[in-house]
Amino acid sequence: MKKFLTHPIGIEQGENVLFSEFAEGGDMWTGQGPRERRTHVRFKEAFRTPPMVQIGISLWDVDTSSALRAEVQAEHITAEGFDAVFRTWSDTRIARIRASWTAIGEVAHPDDWNIS
Length: 116
Prior knowledge:
This protein is mainly beta. 3% of the residues lie in helices and 49% in strands. The strands form two sheets. A three-stranded antiparallel beta sheet has the order 1-6-3. A three-stranded antiparallel beta sheet has the order 2-5-4, with no helix packed on it. The longest helix has 4 residues, at 27-30.
């Protein structure tokens, strides 16, 4: 459980195309076996501490001739951003993926002291 102190809470949302490989014949569309794509997402304004990030697929363009195998995760979360990671495996063919995300966490207060 993430517990917030007395600081204000910020919420940022966004969407990112993680890849689009149909036109170029990239290995998410033509390959087999384990495959992964990472996209670094940078927050518009840094949080005070690393936020909680919820991520999900908002668009998928897939071949339906095989089973759909996919995973999307937020990794390496910092106060400044995170990596949106998409993975698939076996003979699943993915043409395009877009992910939506929401970050919720503490933000700086104008009255905070910065003692360095």
